[in-house]
Specification:
There is one protein chain. The chain is mainly α and 164 residues long. The protein has one domain (4-104, 115-149). It is 73% helix and 2% strand. The protein has helices at residues 10-34, 39-71, 76-83, 85-104, 118-150, and strands at residues 4-5, 8-9.
Length: 164
């Protein structure tokens, strides 16, 4: 896999896919968990977004390793980034489980029965926990990456754009 595109490091470009898609997927999974009626209409889209986000995670890790060879070890960021796939995969499983649950328990034509029971509640609760964990981990990875690039000082205190 190339490290650069037109001379720019590929990692920051790929990371934006993860930073956008994984939280969007987590919010989508949470919405499906709390609103079972949305699973039929939006479930496929949420699974697709979650799958794309999950695929983007190892690509971001791989391009990050290429960037690391060029600029040096980013420290904690690399360690946290390597863990993100273990958050994204359960989110993908949760999205598929919610859609599967909906399709398995969809009412016959003309009858109104919803997905109910202990299994549905357990899956929904687990989906919410996994979604929340993904949001937290994306923040942690991103924050550590920003600190690896910019340090701990806010941009305004570095003399850029402050009230001088």
């Amino acid at each position: 896999m190339p490290d650069t595109v037109n001379g720019l490091p590929l990692h920051p470009l790929v990371v934006h896919a993860v930073v956008v898609l994984l939280p969007l997927a987590a919010i989508g999974v949470a919405a499906l968990a709390v609103r079972p009626s949305w699973r039929g209409r939006y479930g496929g889209l949420v699974v697709l977004i979650t799958a794309l986000a999950t695929i983007a995670v190892p690509v971001a890790s791989s391009t990050g390793e290429g960037l690391e060879r060029r600029v040096g070890d980013p420290g904690v960021h690399a360690q946290l980034g390597d863990t993100l796939i273990w958050f994204a995969l359960p989110l993908l499983v949760a999205s598929v489980a919610l859609v599967w649950l909906h399709r398995r328990t969809a009412p016959p034509a003309g009858k109104r029965t919803g997905a109910s029971g202990k299994v549905a509640v357990v899956i929904a609760v687990l989906a919410l926990v996994v979604a929340a964990a993904n949001l937290v981990q994306v923040y942690r990875v991103g924050d550590s990456g920003a600190k690896a690039v910019w340090g701990n000082a806010p941009a305004a205190s570095a003399g850029h754009g402050g009230d001088d």
